[in-house]
């Protein structure tokens, strides 16, 4: 062997440091790629020979090109993303709803309610006055407009949440399919040679993206694939290269039912409680309907109480048994149906307590006093109109505030985990540049080895000549 | 821990965002002048503010009630004073004729004077406030008295208005209690002033009819108790006005208290916010400056 062995080692060196430079350049190029994990070349000495009478290595060789990856961090990131996904969606929707209840800077149901009873107060001073009667009707109309607008706004928000399920499940399905495809590619690539680092990075990023939308648990298999299960119920979502799919039963256009077909399994109804999907369903089914129910309760109580008092009073012409508001049957949808009774106009307002006395104000006075009596909810009253509404506003405010706080905490936690991941897997340009210089020098040294060996070879050949 | 340039820039973005959010909140508070701009800014205070707002509107409404009621009572009081004057004038006429008169001209003139006075009395009893006859009770769209007979066409209902939460104040004085001496809650007397007037007119006689001295002195006595009846009514009206005055003052005091609470909760302390803003601005400028300096550092510049 002799000199040619030295040249061989030099050639190996050139080759290997060229590859090392390539890995470095890949790192540098991907410094800003989301989900990219930095890679490193692990070098080892090539197997020794006993050619010289003692064992001596045959140069350098690449053991593996590996990526910096922490499986535990991935688990933590996945669960943090799920919580953050849920809280962020919820907080966003709540902040969209809050303006309907912002009595602090705008006039809404609360002011309309005070003004309505204020108009009745004015009527007590002049029960027969046409303008006073007109003001009562106008104030009632404004109150009804306010109720209907809030009811419409909340119902729209519910419908929006329902409609959101379509793009959301579509996006989840495409992520699931991509993960399954990558799983297949990783498995077949790694069967042939080495680690499919970039594909693994992509897949892990997709898993993190998925975890924002739904809660998942995952298992990393020895063949490089990752199996994913749904946290709500434990059904399989991805097994190897097979993906499951979410679908919506749209029989009821206002209330889509979420269903899941696991890979190779049968369609079943699922109840999402985690991630964006869980938040969307919770907003649609529980949180917004909860507010709406309270607005409905208030609307029904007002209509019931005012109607009960109004229908026992008398109009200036002695008419009685006239409802003020259109009677509301059930609490559900009461705010949306809140309107002035068709038979009511300025001549049928019942301010008087007697059929024969048009100037009496006792019924108007009784209606005024409803405002300071416990009347909500109908049947088992525990609050006045305005105090019931104030607590609703305060409750919405509290919910929005606490959801904002939770999101801030989630963000801080996620940021901490991302920092940890970045610390482990992120590309540092300074480091790569140092490596680059290091590899360049090694490359130069290897080529020097070859030129030196060549010179020595020349010398030997010269001796022969 | 290994630190990369990307970590520094992520941290910088996060912290700049936090700083911006704080600046934005301060800016919002300062420019709106309010601590609480949405219910979620401070749910507990918003509830308080809402309840105060509600109470303030109720107080404003009651102040308006009280103002209108005060005007009503002033009208009533003026009319009742006028009636007293009329009754006293009639007593004077009765006094000058208490022994009767043989002169038909004097009798006729006294008779005409008394008939005029009664007309004035009826006019005053038919006083309107807006389009309501104030002495007609709840049947106040038509005049309660007429010149043709002594009947009271109004009704005895005591109208009330709310002057404080669940506290009502009687508003009107009904004509039957005032001039007919009937009705209760409270009763002012039992003299039928209109009837007495007619008796006096009849007793005085005219240019053809002679005077009835006994009847004149009886009518004069009745008019005296009629005048007392009107005085009692006046003092009742004064008592009501005084109560309204007190309620108005009480309302004003409540209003000021509530306003000062609401101001304390809602209005920003500009001095405090100004200091906070300049602190926050300093911190933000510092983080901008360090971000700019640190993110520029790279080994690349030295290779």
Helix-strand makeup class of chain A: alpha+beta
Query: Largest chain interface and its two residue counts?
Result: A-B, 68 and 61 residues
Shape assignment of chain B? rod-shaped
**Which series of helices and strands of chain B comes N to C?**
HHHEEEEHHHH
Helix content class of chain A:
55-70%
Structure description:
- The complex is a heterodimer of chains A (465) and B (303).
- By secondary structure, chain A is of the alpha+beta class.
- Helix content of chain A is 59%, strand content 9%.
- In chain A, strand 8 and strand 9 form a beta hairpin.
- Chain B is mostly helical and 303 residues long.
- Chain B has seven helices and four strands, in the order H-H-H-E-E-E-E-H-H-H-H.
- In chain B, the strands form two sheets. A two-stranded antiparallel sheet of chain B has the order 1-2.
- The model of chain B has no long low-confidence stretch (mean pLDDT 89).
- At the A-B interface, helix 3, helix 7, helix 8 and helix 9 of A face helix 1, helix 2 and strand 3 of B.
In short:
With 465 residues, chain A is α+β, with helices and mostly antiparallel strands. In chain A, 59% of the residues lie in helices and 9% in strands. Chain A has helices spanning 3-29, 71-97, 109-125, 130-192, 197-213, 275-311, 362-370, 385-425, 429-464, and strands at 39-45, 60-67, 216-220, 226-230, 236-239, 242-243, 245-249, 257-261, 268-269.
Protein traits:
heterodimer, A: 465 residues, alpha+beta, 3-stranded antiparallel sheet, 9 helices, 9 strands, B: two-stranded antiparallel sheet, 4 strands, rod-shaped
Topology at a glance:
The complex is a heterodimer of chains A (465) and B (303).
Chain A: H1 3-29, E1 39-45, E2 60-67, H2 71-97, H3 109-125, H4 130-192, H5 197-213, E3 216-220, E4 226-230, E5 236-239, E6 242-243, E7 245-249, E8 257-261, E9 268-269, H6 275-311, H7 362-370, H8 385-425, H9 429-464
Antiparallel strand pairs in A: 1-2, 3-4, 4-5, 5-6, 7-8, 8-9
Chain B: H1 5-32, H2 43-96, H3 104-125, E1 128-129, E2 132-133, E3 160-164, E4 167-170, H4 175-180, H5 193-204, H6 213-266, H7 270-296
Antiparallel strand pairs in B: 1-2, 3-4
